[in-house]
Amino acid sequence: MSSDLAVILLGAGGGNRLGAGGSKALIRIGGKVMARWAAEALCAAEGVSRLIAVGPPDPAQTASLKEACEGLTEEIVAVRGGARRRDSVWAGLMAAQGREMVLVHDAARPFVSTQLAERVIAAARVDDAAVPAIPVADTLVRGEERGVGDLVPREDLWAVQTPQVFRRDLLVEAHRQADPSWDAPDDGSMVRRLGRRVALVPGDSENFKVTWPKDLGRARLIATGLEWFRSPAEEEQMQYPRVGFGWDVHPLREGRPFHLVGVELTTEFGPLGHSDGDPLSHAVADALLGAAGAGDIGLLFPDTDPRYKGMPGPDLLRETVDHLYRQGWRPLQVDAVLILDRPKIAPHRETLRARLAEILGLPASAVSVKGKRTEGLGGLADGAGVGAQAVATLVRQR
Ligand code: MG
Known about the structure:
Elements: E1 5-10, E2 28-29, E3 32-33, H1 34-43, E4 48-54, H2 59-68, E5 77-79, H3 85-94, E6 101-106, H4 114-127, E7 129-135, E8 140-144, E9 147-152, E10 158-160, E11 164-167, H5 168-177, H6 187-193, E12 199-202, H7 213-223, H8 232-237, E13 242-254, E14 258-260, E15 263-265, E16 269-271, H9 279-291, H10 297-300, H11 313-326, E17 329-339, H12 349-360, E18 367-372, E19 385-396
Parallel strand pairs: 1-4, 1-6, 4-5, 7-12, 17-18
Antiparallel strand pairs: 2-3, 6-11, 7-10, 7-11, 8-9, 13-16, 13-19, 14-15, 17-19
Helix pairs in contact: 1-2, 5-6, 9-11
The structure holds magnesium ion.
The site of magnesium ion has 5 residues, from β13 and α9.
């Protein structure tokens, strides 16, 4: 695809409804001026070669836009806007001479996406003119002096957005032909007045226009990442950490070996169980599975299955981690506590931690193991048993 498209970014609006007391494009949202948000998305679109910023001259903004669009082949250009929107677009069109296509966008729509721009560009390459629009969701009525008037059927009503994309010569022609006194609301309407078809591309509700002070509040929430709407499927793909909890207990019997995550403790007694009875591995595995909402070790390694008889804790943990990897999860962090009166855990603490970290593929700093005595209370007291509890954090793999 050739680079033949100039972006005309309109930032001339006064922002009166916003109470901005100056150019809307220069209002800061999340540490960046509004115009820069749009410029970053638009300059990344396929085929864009030049950015023309229309508005009051502002060296700081121009520098910021240059940074946002440094991948472009041509220098960005700043031109002064006119009194009406159409005058500003005209100034942009003049600065876009020699370009095949132009994309006109209001800087007051900071959350335009590169994908939306590319959809509109693709449609305009076919139809010469294309605008994005979203179906009107609210019930529409005419207002009458005394109240609600007639219902306006909304089935074929669309709310038009920018970016709008045109063959440059077609938009120049539309501007030349338009009644000079007409303060056209957008460029798509001007091309329509020529009697030419304008393709309609599904827009994006996130690409809203910052008009009122409330819109600015919403824009700032979005900029901090707090407000994006996500579908359940998108939510699933997010990097939010998930937390799981696991608990396990085994009785202690004389003559059994005592293994924790593969580390043998020297004792006269050890845990009893279908597997090797390693409560640390089992609690951690359950915490990991719990975080993924993927059941528990009883489900994954049923004790009715002879394959798992005497299964060492590390093997069970590794299989659990592999199982979760296949589902797109990876462990981030684990904290575990062993509950028993003897033997003492403190001397083994660092060894257990290092071993567990190695099995999970985590740095030791992301793993913690500690011992806690029963103080003579409960069924685990006086060497009767060993318990373990663990919390684990998982994230989606990138
Ligand atoms: Mg167990």
